[in-house]
Amino acid sequence: FEIKTKGLTPRAQARLKSMWATMQKVFSSRSRLEKIALDIQFDFETKSRLMDGNGNAMLVAGSVYEACKYYEIFQSLGFKKCAIISSYEPQAGDLRTDTVSDEEETETFEKYEIYTQMLGGASVEDFETNTKKKFVNEPYNMKLLIVVDKLLTGFDAPSATYLYIDKKMQDHGLFQAVCRVKRLDGES
Questions:
Q1: Alpha-carbon span 65 to 114, nearest angstrom
Q2: I need a surface site. Which of 12, 28, 47, 82 has the fewest CB within 10 A?
């Protein structure tokens, strides 16, 4: 940020930071994420490969916090066969023990709570191994992977039929992510 706004006055930098923070709040808003989750759930109810259990999907979230919010929303909708795979590892030491007051601390706490609940006592490594195995070999048991930065390159899952992208991506990264989906609806 400092490098990109080097020529701006401190006031202009502050205004730009404020606008960026507002945009991030809009992108992470629960109502926006709920609408996207409902659209994805609709696809699982109407697209043949997703309905019959032979295909599954990946959702690329913009941040680990957004991935956690998506997971929480899907759980509340009764869509239980989904999981998050990301570089995040919940550490109790990252949480402050005093009163949570600012937005960043609240996000850290929510992310920690949702992730540890999803892990159900398993280590992150064991959870990811089992989840990826289910996604590849049992698409009917792991219908949706919510990812942020992992599995977008080099992960081979022939059952992956759909890719939902809710993250700014471009060039090689976008190409690699799109290559994760292997089949078209109607193709065995």
A1: 9
A2: 12
